[in-house]
Specification:
single chain, 357 residues, alpha+beta, Immunoglobulin-like, 3 domains, disordered N terminus
Length: 357
């Protein structure tokens, strides 16, 4: 067969071989016209798509459609849940992949300390907490979701955010922080691919997990905290914990682990104080009620004045105003803890928070 059209080498290489052409010509009869845009629009033809025994031609999908599907497969998309119900659950489980974590080294200095008695970490603000995560088998394609939540059930559904002072744009700590991360108390410091998400005011970090490096049995992930538990308009002295969930591409929770965390100025002092309070039994005289002895560690609900007083004052100075609100909040928070009347005090404490500038 002689072709009188002049073609370049690249055009000639794009055409099918002569044997394939004869099979198609025999199937359809006549001469098969070839468009100029054969590389983009023509149905791809290969030898393995021609059944020479039955003389049947099986066309592939157009090249353009194939490329589009390929691009869609490579596009990374992770559907974040509308509600962080996985963070509100109290149940911790390892799952079929035996999801586990451990703390890294370096917890013996003044930056952070771990209490085995409390299973709790005490750490300074802006200091790094190294952690190690494992799952079996160590396959890729999984995600680690990290969120800080309030430990007490009555505050469990409240979002955990930084206080107004630490979130202020003028605060030097925020000069190099992405505005989308400004509300987050917890930051991931060693994975730039982490995604900071917010749904219904609840905050979390989504970190893609890969298989551990050769010779390693874990995936290292480090965190930093940019607010304290004692801040009045943020964590408000409420105990907090980190919730880690192992998830797949579709958001299915494959495992959940938790770690109590307190962000403070003096980890050694606060750890000693909480460990002592946990181990010291209450005096017997305070555990007797109508000749009934309460179990050790159970506190009585003391009575207090439950009358609500309305106060209308003019305060000079913003710092004085904030200090007054903070003192009022702390007093009621202490009474709520001592009496167990959390639901009674909560509306009035929330009202104070709303007045915080």
């Amino acid at each position: 067969m002689t072709n009188t059209n002049a073609m370049s080498d690249s055009q000639e290489s794009a055409l099918m071989d002569e044997e394939t052409y004869k099979v198609i010509e025999q199937q359809f009869g006549g001469t098969l016209p070839l468009p100029e845009s054969i590389n983009e629009e023509l149905l791809a033809v290969s030898e393995d798509k021609i059944d020479t025994c039955n003389n049947i031609y099986i066309p592939l999908e157009p090249i353009g459609k194939y490329r589009k599907l390929k691009e869609e497969e490579e596009e990374i998309y992770y559907p974040a849940p509308e509600l962080f119900s996985t963070m509100l659950s109290d149940e911790a489980f390892t799952g079929q992949l035996n999801f586990q974590y451990s703390l890294g080294t370096g917890g013996t200095n003044q930056d952070w300390l771990y209490s085995e008695a409390l299973d709790k970490v005490f750490i300074k603000m802006e200091k790094v907490l190294p952690m190690r995560f494992t799952w079996e088998p160590p396959m890729s394609g999984l995600y680690l979701r990290t969120a800080m939540v309030f430990m007490l059930e009555q505050y469990r559904s409240d979002p955990v955010k930084r206080c107004h002072n630490h979130m202020a744009p003028t605060n030097p700590i925020n000069h190099n922080i992405d505005p989308q991360r400004i509300k987050h108390v917890v930051h991931c410091v060693n994975h730039a691919s982490s995604i900071y998400q917010e749904r219904n005011e609840h905050l979390s970090i989504l970190t893609p997990l890969c298989t551990p490096e050769a010779g390693s049995q874990y995936m290292p992930v480090s965190f930093k905290f940019l607010c304290k538990n004692s801040c009045a308009s943020g964590l408000n002295r409420r105990p907090t914990e980190l919730v880690f969930t192992l998830e797949d591409y579709g958001g299915t929770v494959l495992g959940r682990r938790k770690l109590l965390v307190r962000v403070c100025s003096c980890p050694k002092r606060d750890r000693s104080k909480e460990e002592q309070a946990e181990s010291t039994p209450m005096p017997l005289s305070k555990r007797k009620v109508d000749n009934v002895v309460l179990p050790s560690g159970k506190r009585m609900r003391s009575s207090c004045d439950m009358h609500v007083y309305k106060v209308d004052l003019n305060i000079v100075g913003k710092d004085n105003y904030l200090q007054l609100l903070k003192n009022a909040f702390d007093i009621m928070a202490g009474q709520a803890a001592r009496t167990g009347q959390h639901e009674f005090f909560k509306p009035y404490m929330d009202e104070i928070l709303r007045k915080m500038p």
